[in-house]
Amino acid sequence: MRTTIGYTLESIGYVVGAQGLVSFASQTFFGTEWGWLHKVVDLPSAAYLGIAVAGLALVVTGVKTRKTPGPHPTA
Fold first, then answer.
1. Where are the alpha helices (DSSP H) in the chain?
2. Residues 43/27, Cβ–Cβ less than 8 Å
3. For the chain, what is the mean pLDDT?
4. Rounded to an integer, what distance in angstroms lies between the CA atom of residue 47 and that of residue 63?
5. Which superkingdom (predicted)?
């Protein structure tokens, strides 16, 4: 079960982090809107950077959850 939860958190983290990073970069450097996140919420560039960091935190949490050793069954 931990493996499934770890992979799920990690996958969601990659999507959220990528969308936050793309939205931050497009607003900051190009003055346009890229990705789909801006269609859901209209935030300033710094908030999109915060979303990217939140995505990174989900990835790290997912990896740690996956690698946590589970209880060993007794014979």
1. 2-25, 37-40, 45-67
2. no
3. 86
4. 25
5. Bacteria
Question: Is residue 46, in this structure, part of any structural domain at all?
Answer: yes
Tell me the percentage of the chain whose pLDDT exceeds 90.
Answer: 51
Q: Which amino acid does the sequence have at 28?
A: T
**Cα angle vertex 47, ends 43, 52, to 5°?**
120
> In which domain, by residue range, is 39 found?
2-67
Q: Nearest 10 degrees: CA dihedral of 63, 65, 67, 73?
A: -160
Question: 13 to each of 3, 10, 18, 55, 75, how far by Cα in Å?
Answer: 15, 5, 8, 4, 37
Spatial distance between the Cα atoms of 53 and 3, rounded to a whole number of angstroms: 23
Question: For residue 39, what are its two tokens?
Answer: 């269609």
Q: Report if residue 73 sits inside a domain.
A: no
With respect to residue 75, please indicate whether it lies within any of the assigned structural domains.
no
